[in-house]
Amino acid sequence: MNQIIHVSSMNDSETGSSSSSVEKNSFTSEDKLKSSEFRCRITFVRSHLWTWILILLCLIFILISLLIGFLIITIRSQQNSSSLCLSVDCITASAEMLTSMNSEIDPCIDFYEYSCGGWIRTNSMSDDESRADTYSVIRNQMSEKLKLLLEEPITEADNEAIRKVKNFYLSCVDTKLIEQRAERPLLDLLDQEFGGWSLIGRETEKLTTMDWVTMMGILRQYNNEIIIGHNVGPNDANSSLYSIKIYPGGLGMSSSDFYLNKSSKNYQSYRQLMIKTVNLLMQPSSSSNQNQHQHQHQQLQSNETIQRIHTDIDDILEFETRLANISSMFEKTGGAAYQRMPVNKLAKLVPKINWQKYFELTIPQPLNDTESIGIFGFDYFLDVQDITQTVPERIIKNYLLWRFVMNRIKNLDQRFENILEDYYRDQYGTKSIPARWKKCIDFVNGNLGTAVSALYVRKYFDLESKQKAEEMIKNIKKEFMLILDEVEWMDDETRNDAKKKAEMMEEHIGFPDYILDPVLLDKDFDHLEFENSTYFENVVGYLRNSTKKSQGKLSSVDDRTKWTVMPSVVNAQYHRFRNLMSFPAAILQSPFFNKNYPPALNYGAIGSVIGHELTHGFDSNGRHHDQFGNQRLWWHPNTVDRFIKKSSCMIMQYNNYTVKIHGETLNANGLLTLGENIADNGGVKQSYRAFRRSQQQRPNEFYLPGLNMTHDQLFFLKFAQSWCQIMTDEGMIDALKTWRHSLGKFRVIGTLSNFAEFSKAYKCQPGTPMNPREKCSVW
To answer: Pick from 51, 82, 113: which residue ends a domain?
Structure first.
């Protein structure tokens, strides 16, 4: 408008002013031209004005749109941020999971490498380990904690049990005194109990007149199961009572296969350990009395003596190789045919073994001839009878004492640790033996666990963890009950009995309350005495006392409340004779469990372990025991047949897994590992279902920062990372031959490739390695 006014005023000045009306009302041609020009200018100006207005409006609209978009993004970002778990525990878990992964791998091709590739690259075994995995990491952390607790000085506040366990630990780490005493404690024990050992040139009339069954019985008092293994455990027909069970004894090497090739590294290193041990026992140490051992030292220098020792050792190995041959089937199948018979019938069928004498030495109360005994692998004992009739008794006794000595040299001075280090290097691929304090922790924690657990629980255990674990167990049990309704291969009668068993299955979680009561805890240690200056005697004294206590249960009733796994031990267990699951305090910690984790992590890790132990009640071994733990045939024969068929699928699946070591392809043993594989597969399924049901109640569950994953994907990733594992070649060979668990890799790919929900979560196409068209499923 200013421009128009401005133009009009300019026109007025140019035309001048006139007072004449004619001039005001009449238009000349020039005036018309000027008027037309004026209108054109106004139209031009108005046209440009609207253009600029439209441009301005467009700019304003764009700016407003950008602002709205920015606000939407900001709001959404804030919403996403609020759904992330940003606690220290979650951030730590996220970082650990990310660094453990190898995201360059397609999860549908190899989920183990995808989940654990980073962990395998960034973790290493300590020199004293043949493997490293999640369990060993937690165990090492536990050892450090227990070390601090046991090294605290004994005070007046410590009750008797705590004093005793600390004294034992102090005696174990007193290397100065152990070095001073050298081999003397072992030689004294050999002389006192057996009259020496002919292999090292110490032979008295007591040794000469002692028969091999008597020697074997005495050795059993020190918890040695050599040639014949036996224990006093729950009775098959009535698990509230105890009975004797016998089975093949163990071997010096971990697998019977290692005896097949005399030139193999395993066989030769075992032979060298025997030679080195004999040499050390026949030579005085620098701290020993030189005069006392001088004659042994001189004996060792003669070629005749050396030849005699080597011949004796080869005779021992030949005898043990024959034992390995007759026990190999028991080892490879993980069991043997089972039957029961009274002692007098066993004595008639296997008369060359003096069973009466053996049981008189091993059972601390009179045994009736009609006492029923459980026997695993009856044919083995027939073979033992035949072999021992063809081998000179001197060789048998030398073998028995060698096995005892092999177990006890680990309690002697550094010289013996050095030769054990060489042996373990060849057998398991370790570079050194554990530091002495680690071995001491392992012993006291594994054998004096209630007192050690009391220290640990008071210092470290969070009671809220126990409550959360109880809730998870309850939820997982519910899912198993639903699965029982869904399985088509089980008849209704067996299904109903299975439900009863699942309902009655008990749990031990965290720790027993009594260990926090000093008076009750002291009762566990009434029969034990330890001095802080006699480590070797403390060990053998404990072995004798604990063996006597366990063998003395024969006439007693089983205390079903007694814990079978110590709270400070990193493990979980199902006890089929009690229908009982145990989840001790030590396993209820990161990375398996954390009360502050999102449910996907807890259910993926400890939840799968809970489901694993629950499934053991219904696997290839657990199915033989009812809800009370009694062994009986409670499954319908047709259901048994269908179970065996489904199990056979899993046996074949795991048999086909291989590893290549030193250019040789080795297969997994699907039969030996069957029970554990069934438990792995069932456990992850139950836990996943319980997790999904929990999500229905908590739809807005937190995610982990940095991991762009769904909750389902996190569940399976956490499960897989629970089994990340590295091993030495030697350790892997040993595991393939002797472990009842599959290797970590096979536990992951075997379990998840059978589970359709995994393939759905990671969008794995049918026919890919992790989503095979043919799957195996039992539970």
So the answer is: 82
Residue 276 half-sphere exposure toward CB, CA atoms < 13 A: 17
The CA angle 580-586-589, to the nearest 5 degrees, is: 110
Q: Which helix (H) or strand (E) holds 519?
A: helix 518-523
- Report strand pairing: 580-584 vs 658-661: unpaired
Domain hosting 692: range is 88-122+463-505+591-626+633-779
Angstrom distance (rounded) from CA 272 to CA 275:
5
Which is the catalytic residue, given 680, 712, 730, 734?
680
pLDDT digits (tens, 9 = 90+) for 59-77: 766 755 564 444 334 334 4
Residue 30 annotated among the catalytic residues of the structure: no
Tens-place pLDDT, residues 662-715: 889 999 999 999 999 999 999 999 999 999 999 887 767 778 888 889 999 999
SS3 content of the chain, % helix, strand, coil (to 5): 60, 10, 30
H or E segment at 684?
helix 674-697
Query: pTM of the full predicted structure?
Result: 0.84
pLDDT tens for 303-315 read: 888 999 999 999 9
Is residue 160 a part of any domain in this protein? Answer: no
CATH label of the domain that carries residue 731: 3.40.390.10
Beta bridge partners of 132: 726
Catalytic-residue membership of 37: no
Q: Does residue 442 fall inside a structural domain? A: no
| Same domain flag for 739 and 762 | yes
Instruction: Choose, from 331, 558, 613, 730, the residue flagged as catalytic.
Output: 613
What whole-number distance in Å separates Cα of residue 252 and Cα of residue 272? Answer: 13
pLDDT at 148: 96
Residue owning tokens 């924690």: 445
Q: Are residues 733 and 611 in the same domain?
A: yes
505 near 581, Cβ under 8 Å?
yes
